[in-house]
Model the fold of this input.
Amino acid sequence: MNYTLSHLEALEAEAIYVIREVVAEFERPCLLFSGGKDSAVLLHLAVKACWPGQLPFPVLHIDTGHNFPEVLDFRDRRVAELGVRLVVGSVQDAIDNGEVTEDKTPGASRNRLQTHSLIEAIARNRFDAVFGGGRRDEEKARAKERVFSHRDEFGQWDPRRQRPELWNLYNGRYRKGEHFRIFPLSNWTELDIWQYIENESIELPGIYFAHEREVFRKGQMLLALTPYTQPDPANPEEEVHTASVRYRTVGDMTCTSPVLSTAKTIEEVIQEISTTRISERGATRADDKFSEAAMEDRKREGYF
Amino acid sequence: MSQTDLLRFATAGSVDDGKSTLIGRLLYDSKQIFEDQLEAIEKTSLDRGDEYVDLALLTDGLRAEREQGITIDVAYRYFSTPKRKFIIADSPGHIQHTRNMITGCSTADLVLVLVDARNGITEQTKRHAFIASLLRISHLVVCINKMDLVGWSKERFQEIRAELETFVTRLQIPDITFIPISALQGDNVVDRSTAMPWYEGASLLHHLEDVHIASDRNLIDLRFPVQLVMRPRSQQLHDYRGYAGQVASGILGVGDEVMVLPSGFVSKVEGIEFYDQELEQAFPPMSVIIRLADDLDISRGDMLCRPHNKPYISQDLSATVCWMSEKPLEEGTKLAIKHNTAWGKALVHEIRYRLDINTLHRDESAKELGLNDIGRISFRTTVPLFYDEYRVNKATGSFVLVDEQTQVTVAAGMLLTHT
Ligand SMILES: Nc1nc2c(ncn2[C@@H]2O[C@H](COP(=O)(O)OP(=O)(O)O)[C@@H](O)[C@H]2O)c(=O)[nH]1
Done:
């Protein structure tokens, strides 16, 4: 025996340590669960960290009102299996109540509006630690984020005033009204996530695997035909056709695009990602294409 | 699970030594850069009027930094080869950011220092080597960069190497490797350079893939800080009691006799559990649950060790600290301390000296430590710490200090055994 762990075992041990630190030191944690693959992995790790007990905290979903039905089904099934409490922060309600105004121009998404509902849900439930599935490899602004990421009383992130994070000695102390976002998957890459899903047989919504779907092109992006994403009938380039596609991330239907793929199994997906040349966000998130600093701006305001 | 392991390394270099270019190249040549990311930096380079695509942009994180054209904090990057997954803690080289380098080094197995072949060894280089030795990093890789600008000269390489070797004999770094490279052109980064046939060592990437880190861990002294007591509130598991935590050092086996600190009670390990698995042994950095044969009163912050191999137990401590706050540390300051899984309070009795990290001179007249100062302090804690000297056990020898007003982390500390 050489007493070493594989990289996935080491990442898993680190994530479980982080989750247990939060359970020990915070009063009201919750876990963001969108039904996407990162949050499915996060939930799985939380279950492992808290075993043999039940998850001692609820899961929180920020519902844009434009979710994939397959993903909502998956969310509800997992929640029922685990017997955890689901808290939903609804973007639609916030719009209906006039708390936020929706940008109705074509191509606009509700992504930014999620921040309001997220911060509102955190305040209303007095959550002091919010687990998120964010990874540092996703995007440059995330590369500097701490595992224990401090938020001020407005829910904002200040990248210039982050606390130094040393060894595994996490400092989760906060003043009244402040909270922490906790990122146990900080050091994982997209490939790590998929390899772990394979090793642990973690269930995912079907849209992560290749299926036939009606799609059309909009500029450089491929979009699915949905009630919220419609082609311009006058533009012949946006003609609807059927293609074999899968999703690399799942978010708001208005701004998440599928990729052409024939990968029907986890092994095929891993094969595909190992050779792909486009980043996860670049391939699938129309919202980050606007500017290089798009993510950083959203994160400062309190986004996931 | 797949059989690649993990190597974490920190990078250091003065501004313009080519650190960002080197990291960009490592990511690029190991195919970790995606086309859309390349597209984004190509556009930025073009907008700025650069003559070439600046690979350094790949590692420039936040907008403020991009605008100022500098890196101001620690950023983490990832790449992997079939042999290893790598995590880079990229910390900038400015003098005022000693704290960032210490942060980056705190989780690193190896430190990579860049030197511009034209400038040779600078104060910065020495400072970085010193910080690596202070944090007890076992492996230092010195990349002599921009070899293309010194005519790929073997003599220049040897001269720089000799100078640093003289300096580092005063430090305790067991393994130092020197590699002549050109980050811009890729020589000796991934592939061996044809321009420097006189260099017989491995390329940087091959060195990183092969360097042996498994024996850097302490597998001798068993230390298991209790993180959480698992007492599920269910009928079925009514009598279950387990102690969750991450093995800090040493190896723990089922049937082993263990002592619980601070109580001093001795019991036997009845089971080691990890979710649906019953394990025979646990070693660092595994996160497991330990069940003991006896029902003892144990809580978070307690520690399991062997009856005949105990850590030091004391409230009066001495440590090397790096101060990380604008507000200086003075004698008499009270702070919160986190060590292992326990929080307590610490009262700083004495600042013994401040270290000049350029000359390694100890200024014993110093009465305070300012931002980025490194010094030796004595302090007393409200609860005894179970600790080892940082030199022999990083996990149980490290701590952080937190300002109780702002709740911000203000110091990183490494414990010494002599007060
Ligand atoms: N000729 C030459 N120039 C280099 C080399 N590596 C970096 N540079 C240049 O040195 C400058 C500073 O590099 P950069 O990576 O931004 O340095 P950093 O401040 O250490 O991150 C840039 O203009 C690079 O193109 C090299 O190996 N050879």
Q: What stands out?
A: Chain B has three domains: 6-216, 224-305, 312-416.
